[in-house]
Amino acid sequence: MKHTTLLIMAAGIGSRFGGGIKQLEPVGLHNEIIMDYSIHDAIEAGFNKIIFVIRKDIEADFRERIGNRVESICKKLNVEIAYAFQDLNNVPGVVPEGRTKPWGTGQAVLAAKELIHEPFAVINADDYYGKEAFGNFMTGLYWSMRTMPLRWRDLF
């Protein structure tokens, strides 16, 4: 496939985490975060565009902790990086009074709709999927596009 996107949902508030930005916490010996491993595995499997779905209020921390570094590495590998912003009020319809949490997966994907023009897979920033999963994603995307082509715009 020419273009394939990995959409990384990284806007969660980590309410059960107990402070800090969960998806930016180091887990590796050299301060790697889980997204470092996912991005590496995804690029190795053939993904050539990465969209981070984040909140505006964590943008500076996100770019400092991973965004700028990943952008630099991906530029050398000809992998595009983009950002979409999940906003509580960016939903079709009315936001219930008192709602403070993001809406979740559906709204995260909807936040990126203007950036997605190719087959894509969606992952959580704070889950590790393993190298094999990204190969399986690519296989599934390849065969789904060959057997039933669907344009993103057809969904809306």
What does this structure look like?
By secondary structure, the protein is of the alpha/beta class. The chain contains four helices and four strands, in the order βαβαβαβα. The chain has helices at residues 34-45, 59-76, 105-111, 131-147, and strands spanning 5-9, 49-54, 80-85, 120-124. It has a four-stranded parallel beta sheet, sandwiched between helices. Helix 1 (34-45) links the parallel strand 1 (5-9) and strand 2 (49-54). Helix 1 (34-45) packs across helix 4. The two termini are 24 Å apart.
Structural class based on helices, strands and sheet pairing: alpha/beta
What Rg, in angstroms, do the CA atoms define? 16 Å
Q: Cα distance, first to last residue?
A: 24 Å
Strand order of the largest sheet: 3-2-1-4
**Uncertain regions: pLDDT < 50 for 5+ in a row?**
none
Largest sheet report: 4 strands, parallel
SSE string: EHEHEHEH
Q: What fraction, in percent, of the residue positions are helical?
A: 25-40%
Estimated share of beta-strand residues: 5-15%
Shape: globular
